[in-house]
Write a structure and sequence with these properties.
The structure is a single chain. The chain has 12 helices and 6 strands. The protein is an alpha+beta fold. It folds into 2 domains: 90 residues, no CATH class; 111 residues, no CATH class. Strand 2 and strand 3 form a beta hairpin.
Length: 231
């Protein structure tokens, strides 16, 4: 069986006028520990290396990604960081923009089915503010559950409960979650305010601008909130 290697994009180095060098980005379905590789070929010479998703999205590699039309990986890496776990190669591939050509084409993304115990588990985790459970429950969310969960939110709930809603829905963009995150801009918890900035602006790359030393920087969050929103 051939190695499951998927070409995500190719391009020329920025500023290169010779046309002799080609850059590439590949996804390796059988290497979950380093699913992204970036290579450079000139003549018969080829160099390359494997990376984790977040390593590939580091600023030093950004020109290579953009030259190959793979800047979407920067947003996927931010989402991975928000979720607090590593994405599988299949999850990375499923997040590739539909407008970008893929060879071979990815399998259709299946909707997560709603099971009878999904909503009760979510409601119990929100009530208990069980953030560890909420992290896992993000993976069972679908459009139906997002609307059902959002319907249970109220502005007069305690902030601890509203922060639990924000933590669960932090990567959702449906219209029904916007009131939750408009309110979360005023949360005493900086993580909730950071999630709100990303969701309301539809730009999860903003999360990186609010980080310092591996954590959310409250001062940076508040600067963005003041800059982008009128409260």
């Amino acid at each position: 069986m051939p190695t499951p290697l998927i070409l995500l994009g190719t391009g020329r180095p920025p500023g290169d006028t010779s046309g002799n060098t080609v850059l590439d980005v590949h996804l390796h379905l059988d290497h979950p520990e380093s699913p992204i590789s970036m290579g450079e070929t000139w003549g018969r010479q080829t160099t390359g290396a494997g990376y984790t998703l977040r390593q590939a999205a580091e600023s030093r590699n950004e020109p290579h990604l953009r030259a190959c039309g793979c800047e979407w990986l920067l947003l996927v890496a931010t989402e991975e960081k928000l979720r607090g776990r590593l994405f599988t190669p299949e999850e990375i591939l499923a997040r590739r923009p539909a407008s970008a050509p893929v060879s071979p084409p990815p399998p259709a993304k299946r909707s997560v089915p709603t099971t009878p115990d999904s909503l009760p588990k979510i409601r119990a985790a929100i009530e208990k503010q069980d953030f560890e459970a909420l992290e896992g429950l993000r993976d069972v969310l679908n459009d139906e559950l997002v609307h059902q969960v959002a319907a249970g939110w109220r502005a007069d709930l305690p902030w601890s409960v509203k922060d639990a809603y924000a933590a669960l829905l932090m990567d959702q963009t449906a219209a029904c979650v916007r009131p939750i995150f408009q309110d979360a801009l005023r949360s005493p918890t900086p993580e909730s305010r950071a999630y709100a900035v990303c969701v309301l602006k539809g730009d999860f790359s903003l999360f990186e601008a609010m980080m310092s030393d591996g954590g959310v920087d409250a001062a940076k969050v508040d600067t963005l909130v003041r800059t982008l929103f009128t409260l």
